[in-house]
Specification:
single chain, transcription regulation, 213 residues, WH-like_DNA-bd_sf, DNA-binding, Arc Repressor Mutant, subunit A
């Protein structure tokens, strides 16, 4: 395995978890020590992550975590709407009985999290549901693209999760995706996934309007 692979995975995970925040400088020497990698390995990892859009290189300043604007977050969600619709449709075609049972179980856990006010728990289940739909779809290329987009948009995803009333709005949207896949109805699954992402875009706009006030 090339030396930079664990460094790429480690930095990506730190960004996804919020440990590395937008505009934070990434010091090669610190990363080299943290991941027990050579400076050359760290530089190669940073180049790959720059190609993914997760970090940016600043002349004479090194690398930093790239900050995604609200306008770009909306664009990312518009792209996700198309690709996640595809994945939901494929999942409806390919889901096994065990897959459907698992998705139903996730839906019940999401319902319980909303009922108990467990926002962070609901957010984690939300991400797991989207990941399982991608996996069930068998669309490897789509999954890779969506994972990169999710990583770029992680800050805005967290803000969405914390937006008042958002779990109560998104729960029925997620349950509709599950129901369509369980019914093995690709068209309904695609419509449900697209409707959910339209709702995400609408909420992003609400968050932006609140920030502007």
């Amino acid at each position: 395995m090339p030396e930079e692979r664990p460094v790429v995975a480690g930095i990506r995970e730190a960004i996804l978890s919020g440990e590395f925040v937008p505009n934070q400088r990434l010091i090669e020497a610190d990363l080299s020590e943290r991941f027990a990698a050579s400076r050359a390995g760290v530089r190669a990892a940073l180049l790959e992550l720059a190609n993914e859009g997760l970090i940016e290189r600043v002349q004479n300043r090194g690398a930093r975590v790239r900050a995604v604007s609200l306008a770009e977050a909306v664009e990312i969600s518009e792209v996700r709407m198309v690709i996640e619709g595809l994945c939901a449709a494929k999942a409806a075609e390919r889901a096994t009985a065990a897959d459907i049972e698992e998705l139903r179980g996730l839906g019940e856990r999401m319902r319980a999290a909303v009922a108990s006010g467990d926002v962070l728990g609901y957010s984690a289940l939300n991400e797991r549901l989207h990941r399982r739909v991608r996996e069930i779809s068998g669309q490897g290329t789509a999954s890779d693209v969506l994972e990169r987009l999710r990583a770029q948009n992680v800050r805005h995803q967290f803000r969405l999760a914390m937006h008042p009333g958002r779990p109560n709005t998104s729960l029925p949207e997620h349950l509709a995706i599950i129901d369509a896949i369980a019914d093995r109805d690709p068209d309904a699954a695609e419509r449900a996934a697209r409707a959910h992402l339209r709702s995400v875009i609408g909420t992003l706009s609400e968050v932006g309007a609140a920030d502007a006030r």
